[in-house]
Amino acid sequence: MPTQQQWKPKARRVKKDERARLQVARAHLQERRLDEALALFDDILEDNPSSEAGHLGAGMCHFHIGEYELAIQHYQEALSRNPQLVPALLMSGNAYRMLGSEDQALEEFERAIDLDPEGDSARIQAGRIYAKRDQFAEAESHIQESLRSNPQNAAARILLANLYSKENRTDEAKRELEAAIKVQPDLWIAHFQLARIYTQLDEHDKAVEALNHCIRAKSDRAEAHFLLGTVQMKMGEHGAAEATYRRALKIDPNLQQAKFKLALACMEQEKFEDALQQLQEIVKKRRKAPGAHKLLGDVYSRRGDHALAVEEYHAALRQGKEIYGKHPKLKDILDSDQDDEAKAAAFREAMEELERMPPDEDMMKQRRQRIQAVRRLRRQRPSGRAAG
Q: How far apart are CA 266 and CA 278, in angstroms?
């Protein structure tokens, strides 16, 4: 491949017929008629293998289909003909990122930045990778530089706010989110992230206000309803929380956290049958659900079914050894000769004490890594183009 210094632009003539076909193919691509668009781009490349626009278009079709390796091949073909083609570098970087090849993605983004220092897209994408790697200084530098080029970029401000939140720079995170909202008042994610900060600070009224703005802007986000329910629970508004969790589940019936919290809200109102129904659905679907078994124990205990409560507490202890095994009293309770009522009360008290303990950082890190791995797998899964 020629280097940047060796390469010199050459005048290229685009055939009138090719220009017309590119226009039609791009229209199909914009409408997500991917098979039709790809067929046209392939025809263009068959007639003119040097067409940069043809390779970019074909690459974009493969990208949207989920065929990232094929997309990269087309982007690299375009770059072999024009090493200074910044859009090809950006698209190639995004494809590498979707494959989980962050080093190669970062290399493409950094090359794009060298060629176009004022462009904000490459800096934002590089900033995302650095932030994911906890290289906060590099991430902040890129994102701040992108905002100098485009202060109206609300997405960059949200990314910067997330970065500040990871570093516990709460005031700076709030400032960036508020700035994003001024730029784009109906940006639901900015209101949502602001609500999360207020929730962590126990500023419940401000959290509710932010979530109401969020839900007005985007009413079909289950996570917004879920967080609102969580705030309502903290405020002691159990009936309102129950209704909010039910709305979240109507949007996303598979949101297990909402089922769990709904059961908790029902239990607090002594709606024991409703609570049991939600929890039983969870344990049927999940092989390991120590938290659900613990809450089942709480429900049975409060309903007066102490023998069933003890059984559920035992199940929670067995399934969650890495969590509950850290409490020194639990084994003593397990081996005690107390009656079921006393044993259930002791279990409940010990587990409530455990829940007040600070989270284990290693365990939280492992959980984040598992979540990121699942997200990478989902991104890599092809979207399912029918075989020809």
A: 10
